[in-house]
Amino acid sequence: MIPKYKSKAQAQVFLSATPVIFTVGLTLVLILLLPLDPPSEIKELENTEVEVGSTTVLKCSSTGNPRPVYSWSYYQDANVYVKNEDGVSLLHIRHASANNNGSYTCKASNSFGNVSKTVVVTVKGKVNIMHYSR
């Protein structure tokens, strides 16, 4: 409550001498320092047999900090695609054919190194060969 003063000068002296209390907001930042590591040995990627016309998925996973980035080497064909999700890389082969026989290499890389693993996909079963006549 501000008291009544006889003049403006008395009121100004009172207001300028009144202490002001500030509330200071405090932000606490917690920084976790995790060890920096190259990618670990690739897990879950194994040689695979698949029937002609079937679908199979090759799964490549590794750990490291920062999180590894994946790349694949294989014979490129229209029925093969790669999807990376949740720290793993999945190579899908749909409607497998003789073209999908062979080696598939997954490479996991980060700024501290890389690791790779090669497996073999074998397509089994009778392959239908279509002959066209003109």
From TrEMBL:
Keywords tagged on the record: Disulfide bond, Immunoglobulin domain, Membrane, Transmembrane, Transmembrane helix
TM annotation in the entry: 12-34
Annotated Ig-like domain residues: 38-122
UniProt cross-references to Gene3D superfamilies, sorted A to Z: Immunoglobulins (2.60.40.10)
Domain of life: Eukaryota
Listed name of the protein: Ig-like domain-containing protein
